[in-house]
From TrEMBL:
It comes from the Bacteria. Residues 188-256 form the Mechanosensitive ion channel MscS domain. SUPFAM superfamilies: Sm-like ribonucleoproteins. Keywords: Membrane, Transmembrane, Transmembrane helix. GO terms for molecular function: mechanosensitive monoatomic ion channel activity. It is found in: Membrane. One of its GO terms (biological process) is cellular response to osmotic stress. GO terms for cellular component: plasma membrane. This is Membrane protein. The chain crosses the membrane at residues 26-51, 71-88, 108-125, 146-164, 170-197.
Length: 415
C-alpha cells in the first residue's frame, strides 16, 4: 500500500516537470511536506473540535490532565513525522547520500517526538497522582523524575546510535565499561533517589511540613521535594534548597507531630527578687480566700494549720506555713489549667530553676492549643502579661538589673 501511494506521489510530481529529474525530486519533496502539514492540521482540528468537548464533559479528571499536558497533541504529532519518514527518503536513489541523511534525520525526529510524548505522559501521571490524598506521603515526584532521567538517557543513546548508524544495544553494552564515570555523573541523582525512598519509607518528611535544619540555615515550610533538592520557604521569605541525602545523613527537626498533636509547647521564665519572698501570716492569707483560683487552697491550708496547732504539732505547723512565692506558684498553675488556650490534658507546671546571682528563676511550662506562629505567640504574650501584672498582688518583685532610669531616680532622691 505504501508503495502504491509512493508511486502516486511520483506520478503527480511528474506532471509538473516531466523529464527533469531535479525538479521532479523538488516537487516530490514539497508535495510530501505539504501532505505532512495537512495531516498535522487535520489532527489538531480533530483534537480541538471533536476530542476536547468530549474530555471536558466527562466526570474523570485524568483525561483533563492528559489534554492539559498536551499528551494527545504530542501523540498526534507523530503522524506527520511517520509520513515524512515513509516517503521522503524515496525521493532519492537508495545509494544516494541524501537518502541516507534524510532517513537518519527522520529517525532522530521521530525518536525526539516519542521522548516528548512519553515525557508529557509522565508529567500528566505526576499531576494525577499528586491529587490523590493517599499518595501524598510518597515521593511521587522523585520517582517520576527518576523515570524521566532513564527515559532521556535511553533516548539520547538511541539518537547517538541512529546518527552514527550503530545499534543502540551495542552502545548500551559499551556503557558497562564506563559505569564508574556514569556513577560520578549521576551521583546526586542516585543519592537523591535513595534518600527520597528513605525519607518516605520512614515517614520523615512531607510536602507542607515545617522543618528546621540549622546546618543548612533552613527554618520554614517544605514547598517541594524533588529528586535532587528539598525546597524550604523560610519564614523570612527566603528559599533554602537542601539535597535530600543531606537530610538523611545529617539531622533536622520536623514539627509535624506538634501540629498533629494536642498542643505546642510554651516555656517562659521570670526572675523573682529573693528579697521579696516571705512567709504570709494568717491575716494576709485570709485576704486570698476569696480568690477563685487559690481560695480553696488557702482555706485547706488554714484548716490544716489550725488542726496541727490544736494537736500541738509544732513541726507540722511550721511545715504548713505559706510563702508568697508558693501562693504565686499555685495561682499560676491554676490559671494555666483554666485559661482557654492551654491544653490541661498535657503536661503543665510552674517550677523553680536553680537559683543564680540574678534571682530565683520561675519557669512556666505548658502546651498551647494554638499552633500557628502568630496565634501561639499571642497566647504566650497574654500569659506573660497576666503573670507580670499579678505578681505585685503577692508582694513579690521581679529582678531587673538597674538601668539609666534607676540611677536617675537615685540621683534625684539624694540631690
Amino acid at each position: 500500500m505504501l508503495k502504491s501511494i509512493e508511486n502516486s506521489f511520483h506520478q503527480i510530481a511528474g506532471l509538473f516537470f516531466p523529464g527533469t529529474e531535479v525538479w521532479h525530486t523538488i516537487v516530490y519533496v514539497v508535495l510530501i511536506i505539504l501532505v505532512a502539514i495537512v495531516c498535522d492540521l487535520v489532527c489538531k482540528l480533530l483534537i480541538n473540535k471533536l476530542l476536547l468537548p468530549v474530555i471536558r464533559r466527562t466526570r474523570f479528571e485524568w483525561d483533563d490532565h492528559l489534554y492539559d499536558k498536551q499528551v494527545v497533541a504530542r501523540l498526534a504529532a507523530l503522524a506527520p513525522a511517520f509520513i515524512l519518514y515513509a516517503f521522503l527518503p524515496s525521493a532519492f536513489d537508495v545509494d544516494n547520500s541524501w537518502s541516507v541523511l534524510i532517513e537518519r534525520i527522520c529517525k532522530v525526529y521521530i525518536i525526539a517526538l516519542i521522548l516528548r510524548f512519553l515525557n508529557g505522559m509522565l508529567n500528566a501521571i505526576h499531576d494525577i497522582l499528586s491529587e490523590k490524598e493517599e499518595l501524598r506521603y510518597y515521593p511521587v515526584k522523585g520517582g517520576i523524575q527518576t523515570l524521566q532521567v532513564i527515559l532521556f538517557s535511553i533516548g539520547f543513546i538511541s539518537i547517538i546510535g541512529t546518527i552514527i548508524d550503530e545499534s543502540p544495544a551495542r552502545l548500551f553494552a559499551g556503557l558497562g565499561a564506563s559505569a564508574a564515570v556514569l556513577m560520578l555523573i549521576f551521583k546526586d541523582t542516585i543519592l537523591g533517589f535513595v534518600a527520597g525512598i528513605q525519607l518516605s519509607a520512614n515517614n520523615m518528611l512531607h510536602k507542607g511540613d515545617w522543618i528546621t535544619a540549622p546546618a543548612h540555615n533552613a527554618n520554614g515550610i517544605v514547598q517541594d521535594v524533588t529528586l535532587n533538592t528539598v525546597k524550604v520557604l523560610n519564614f523570612d521569605n527566603t528559599i533554602t534548597t537542601i539535597p535530600p541525602y543531606a537530610l538523611v545523613s545529617g539531622s533536622f527537626t520536623n514539627w509535624r507531630s506538634m501540629f498533629e498533636g494536642g498542643g505546642r509547647r510554651i516555656m517562659r521564665q521570670i526572675l523573682l527578687d529573693v528579697n521579696s519572698i516571705e512567709f504570709l501570716d494568717k491575716e494576709r492569707l485570709r485576704g486570698f480566700e476569696h480568690n477563685h483560683l487559690i481560695g480553696e487552697f488557702v482555706s485547706q491550708r488554714l484548716q490544716a494549720i489550725s488542726a496541727a496547732r490544736a494537736a500541738d504539732n509544732l513541726f507540722q505547723v511550721e511545715e504548713l506555713r505559706v510563702t508568697n512565692s508558693l501562693l504565686f506558684r499555685v495561682y499560676l498553675e491554676n490559671y494555666i489549667r483554666q485559661m482557654g488556650k492551654s491544653n490541661p490534658d498535657m503536661l503543665y507546671m510552674v517550677r523553680y530553676l536553680p537559683m543564680a546571682e540574678k534571682g530565683l528563676p520561675v519557669e512556666l511550662y505548658l502546651f498551647s492549643t494554638e499552633k500557628t506562629w502568630k496565634a501561639y505567640e499571642g497566647v504566650a504574650a497574654d500569659l506573660m502579661d497576666h503573670t507580670l501584672g499579678i505578681i505585685k498582688e503577692f508582694g513579690l518583685r521581679l529582678y531587673q538589673a538597674p538601668g539609666s532610669y534607676d540611677f536617675q531616680l537615685f540621683k534625684e532622691r539624694f540631690s
